Amino acid sequence: MELTSKPQSYDVGKKEFDEWGNFQKKVINEVMTKAAQTPELYTRFRKYLIENPVVTKEQIYVDSAVDFKPVQDILLNSYEKAPESYKLGEKFYGCGHCGGLMYVRKDNNLKCENKHCAKKKKNPVPLAAHQYDEIFWLKKDLRYFIHRPGKAELRLEGQLKQLNRLEVKLYPELDQYDLHLVFPDGTVWAVDVKFWESAYNLAKKVNQPIRQLKRQPYHKSFFVFPDELKSYGQEYIQEFRGYCPVSIKKSQVMFESSFVNKVIKKLGIEK
After folding, report:
1. Which of 89, 130, 138, 185 could be a cystine partner for 142, CB 3.0 to 4.6 Å?
2. What is the pTM of this model?
3. Structure confidence by residue, pLDDT tens digits, 10-19
4. 171 near 156, Cβ under 8 Å?
């Protein structure tokens, strides 16, 4: 299968935005179908997209053939050739915070598509490729809907896995929600990480409670927002709760660092 090489622009309207969502859903649904009997394949596929927003052509062909044979075509079709206009000089650069491909502004400085990365003030990383190799990146809606929130999902998973006696599972039962936590006393928490600029738009999308698993249903559920959005303050949380058609308690919604502290308190760990 050939990787598509048509570059896409950064600025888009609502119609194109909706089309991104359709492609992302198509990819995810196809992988879920292929992984119906092996949910671990779905988790590995999703993690791969999050951890590899930019790849070389050689890397993606090898990885898809060796590690993702059942979904090889889907993985290859998730990437396209990086646009030459994103090069500064003769090199592409990755964001030091999220790993995404950076573009060149009119002032000749590099900037990440995710505006929140600039707050971290991490240096761009030059991307090396073999002389005859090419750089590919995730297609646009996968960058927005999978990679961007996924970085926060995996970051939270990593923080929680460092806590002793806490069982952490990522994307349980083919992504019913993001994180499944089991405490030593048998208490189960379900977590959905949401990375939306608009609390209002997010609230309108959340039209049902977090779904229960068939096995090991949760006792409590939470919506967690990445700390990148923390500067929006409690107004963000209030707006989300105020417009969400689902009844959500104040204790169920918080930013990432607050949730980690809540888990630590539940475990009885002294900071």
Report:
1. 138
2. 0.88
3. 334 445 445 5
4. no
